């Protein structure tokens, strides 16, 4: 394996897993991967949802022998077979594979692992796309297997689309357990086969990936932004402005701003908006997201680091998600949802987005079905 194209980039860690204040993250590319590391091996891809279908098809088209592991009666079986892939039960797939890629939802992975663990042999690899269950001890692999992570930083349908377009999707690589001494070489070859090495694979740890992922989702991407949007919307409506104007200013235009930041960073966003918008943002943004908000973020991060959130989420699932379901219904009932549904119909992209949403919902329903069935099997066991 050559490191001719390996690069480093600066990162600041939060102190987990022995990190220093300033470290350099290594990024690997195709030249760093050796396809022969998995050429003679069989990969069992467990699950055929968002990530599962992309990994399985990309691996297959890269010449890797793939078996998709799905329970009998799964609605995804026909889809995988139609895509030209071999399909067996999870236990059967694992028994014939050297690499097991665990791509079912996090919440059912422990149950699936219990069903397949006897099929793991010394020197096999147990691979993940998210570190939750390893980091928080919900899955405890035997000491004589490699445990790795290859995590594309994109939804599965984009991983697949980029591969088909001969483009790449950035990904993460982590090694939790290296029994064979070849875990990294094999993981890089896997990343190359699914297209991630074309764009770059950032080396991290299971702990760092899990904790930063959960924090980002809760404090910024899913929780923080949604609450900021709703608070802005409610502030304007309560002050007498129309719901339609509040929606446009606080939610609709969010995509325009995020797209600018995605393409060129915060600086590019400020270069692209008006001087009035830039000055207002620079002088008023930290009034809203002030030191108190930062303290709340630190509290959220602490709950992630200590495992408090993980224990809460595990307990919530064991109780059949009563709080989760209640909160989802409350969100759907917020006024901004009805206003948005009406206004989105004004845009030319509405029909196209509706089709995409239906496809995403179909994938989610398939994953939910697999999750519910796994939970039932766990109860029966």
Topology:
Blueprint: E1 7-11, E2 23-28, H1 36-39, E3 42-46, H2 50-61, E4 65-69, H3 76-82, E5 86-88, H4 90-95, E6 99-102, H5 109-116, E7 125-128, H6 132-135, E8 146-152, H7 156-164, E9 171-177, H8 183-194, H9 196-199, E10 201-203, H10 206-221, H11 223-238, H12 243-252, H13 254-272, H14 275-288, H15 291-306, H16 308-318, H17 322-332, H18 335-344, H19 350-380
Largest pleated sheet: 10 strands, mixed
What is the beta-strand fraction?
5-15%
- Give me the CATH superfamily of the largest domain: NAD(P)-binding Rossmann-like Domain
CATH topology of the largest domain: Rossmann fold
N-to-C terminal Cα separation, in Å?
Answer: 44 Å
The number of helical elements comes to 19
Please provide the ordered H/E string of secondary-structure elements: EEHEHEHEHEHEHEHEHHEHHHHHHHHHH
**Could you state the oligomeric state of the chains shown?**
single chain
Largest sheet strand order:
1-2-10-9-8-7-6-3-4-5
Name of the CATH class of the largest domain:
Alpha Beta
Which structural class best describes the helix and strand composition? alpha/beta
Summed up, the domain count is 2
Estimate percent helicity.
55-70%
C-alpha-based Rg, rounded? 22 Å
Question: Which of globular, elongated, flat, extended, rod-shaped describes the shape?
Answer: globular
The low-confidence parts are 9-21, 367-381
The CATH architecture designation of the largest domain is 3-Layer(aba) Sandwich
| Overall strand count | 10
Mean pLDDT: 90
Folded structure, characterized:
The chain has 381 residues and is α/β, with parallel strands linked by helices. It has two domains: 7-205, Rossmann fold, CATH 3.40.50.720; 214-380, no CATH class. 58% of the residues lie in helices and 13% in strands. The chain contains 19 helices and ten strands. A ten-stranded mixed beta sheet has the order 1-2-10-9-8-7-6-3-4-5. β4 (65-69), α3 and β5 (86-88) form a beta-alpha-beta unit. α12 packs across α18. The longest helix is centred in the C-terminal third of the chain and has 31 residues, at 350-380. The radius of gyration is 22 Å and the shape is globular.
């Amino acid at each position: 394996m050559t490191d001719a194209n390996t690069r480093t980039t600066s990162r600041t860690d939060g102190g987990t897993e022995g990190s220093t204040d300033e470290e350099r993250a290594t990024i690997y590319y195709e030249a760093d991967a050796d396809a022969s590391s998995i050429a003679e091996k069989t990969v069992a891809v467990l699950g055929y949802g968002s990530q599962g279908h992309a990994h399985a098809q990309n691996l297959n088209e890269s010449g890797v022998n793939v078996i998709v592991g799905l329970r009998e009666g799964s609605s995804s079986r026909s889809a995988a077979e139609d895509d030209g892939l071999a399909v067996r039960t999870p236990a059967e797939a694992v028994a014939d594979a050297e690499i097991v890629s665990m791509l079912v939802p996090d919440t059912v992975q422990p149950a699936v692992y219990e069903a397949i663990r006897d099929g793991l042999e010394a020197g096999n690899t147990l691979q993940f796309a998210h570190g939750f269950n390893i980091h928080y001890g919900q899955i405890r692999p035997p000491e004589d297997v490699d445990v790795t992570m290859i995590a594309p930083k994109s939804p599965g349908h984009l991983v697949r689309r980029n591969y088909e377009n001969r483009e790449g999707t950035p990904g993460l690589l982590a090694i939790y357990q290296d029994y064979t001494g070849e875990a990294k070489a094999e993981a890089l070859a896997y990343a190359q086969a699914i297209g991630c090495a074309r764009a770059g694979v950032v080396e991290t740890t299971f702990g760092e990936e899990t904790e930063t992922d959960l924090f980002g989702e809760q404090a910024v991407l899913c929780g923080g932004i949604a609450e900021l949007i709703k608070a802005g919307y409610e502030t304007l409506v309560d002050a007498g402005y129309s719901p339609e104007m509040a929606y446009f200013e606080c939610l609709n235009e969010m995509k325009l701003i995020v797209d600018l930041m995605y393409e060129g960073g915060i600086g590019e966003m400020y270069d692209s908006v008006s001087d009035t918008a830039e000055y207002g943002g620079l002088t008023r943004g930290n009034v809203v997201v002030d030191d108190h908000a930062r303290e709340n973020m630190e509290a959220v991060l602490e709950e992630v680091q200590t495992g408090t959130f993980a224990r809460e989420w595990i307990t919530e699932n064991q109780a059949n998600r009563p709080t989760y379901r209640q909160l989802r219904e409350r969100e759907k009932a917020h006024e901004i949802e009805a206003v948005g549904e009406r206004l989105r119909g004004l845009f030319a992209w509405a029909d196209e987005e509706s089709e995409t949403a239906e496809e995403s919902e179909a994938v989610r329903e398939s994953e939910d079905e697999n999750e519910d069935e796994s939970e039932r099997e766990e109860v029966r066991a």
